[in-house]
Amino acid sequence: MPAAPPVLFVSDHVEGSVLALTVPDGAVVGRLTGRHLSEHAGFLALPGGRVACVDDRRGELLVLDPYTEEFVERAVPVAVPAEHLACDPSGRRLAVTTGLGKNGVPWSDLLTVVDLATGEAARVRTRVGEPGVTVLGGDEPLVVLRHREPGALAVHRFADLLSAPPGCPPATPRQLLPLPDDGHGDAQAPGAEVVFAATGEGVHRARREGDALAAEAAIPWGAPARGWYLRLDTRRQTLWSTLRGGDPDPLRWPEWTNQAWRHDLGTDRTHRTELGPGLVFRLAFARRHTAFTRIHPDGDELVLLDADDTVRRVPLPAMDGAPRRGGTPWEGVQRRAVAASPGSDWIAVTRGGHGEVHLVDAETGHEAARLRLDTALQHGGHMTLRGRDDGAEGDPVGR
To answer: Rounded to whole angstroms, how far apart are CA atoms 345 and 287?
Structure first.
């Protein structure tokens, strides 16, 4: 029996739709309308090719399974606006933090935990901010919140949170581990029971010891720049980020420098690769390549790095409404989302505002197909690519 093709989940969080399409033919295997997913919390990979995400308008955690007719396996009420989403390595126990939404300052202190096996859920109060989150597994799972200003890793027992009484009571952490105030970016290495947090100083790490965390030496960026995004490469147990340098003024974004940063957890060695100027942020892992999109007034491109650090650059068609010189790269402009699966050579890149998804073969660098959707994909939308047994769930943090 042939293996099931990879499935691309595409969210237009502005217009309110979610599509699941097989790759590369683009056949629709799942569709939701009236669903405005949290682009910031992203998609969380679960076992069996499933994903979890949060509908920010309805206040629901959704578990989507493209291999069943129902598509929505489970919907659980959660506090919103969703900021970050993570699960334990088994994919059973999830945590959702709340953040800014469309507000100028953080205002919500609600945290929701969910047990997918039983359907139980509970909400507690933690601390106002925009906390990141990881969930360590084992017999006694731990929820680790990464707070800012003041920075800290706050450790809670999942069971304590799930058994909280109604009324969203305050939850007191079992431990507070100091961090710098500018944390942004979280990852977990499930096998080693280590959590990571990106700060201006570098990547701080802490290892589980019982019901607590023990701080370990931070990993320096090794450059006059920092990463604002952090994720685990499940293929090679490597941490990745994009280092952004230069004048932080958003109006100077075409001059920002960008480096691909990776740290091998086995050898404790770090390597950096130049990507070029402009806006580079999120990244995606294919079978043998790591993919980045680079937006720049002189032309956009998909940047592919292979295992030997060879760089291939694939030009992308321009976007109407793209960021321009003299403006910022965030407000009222089109962007691009990128997705890949560690079990496939396909790379998917959106063309924001045009309702198009470019499918590129990472092995050749050629565009093999272009999917034209019935939604504009304003602001670039958001995507993830899953294979039924691709192992992406080895990274238990929403992306």
So the answer is: 5
**What is the reported pTM?**
0.97
Residue 279 CA to residue 198 CA, distance in Å, equals 19
Segments making up each domain of the chain, as ranges: 7-394
pLDDT digits (tens, 9 = 90+) for 35-88: 999 999 999 999 999 999 999 999 999 999 999 999 999 999 999 999 999 999
Residues of the chain with pLDDT under 50: none
7-44 per-position pLDDT tens digit = 999 999 999 999 999 999 999 999 999 999 999 999 99
pLDDT for res 307: 87
Query: Smallest Cα–Cα separation from 338: which of 258, 257, 281, 262?
Result: 281
Q: May I ask the CATH architecture of the domain 7-394?
A: 7 Propeller (2.130)
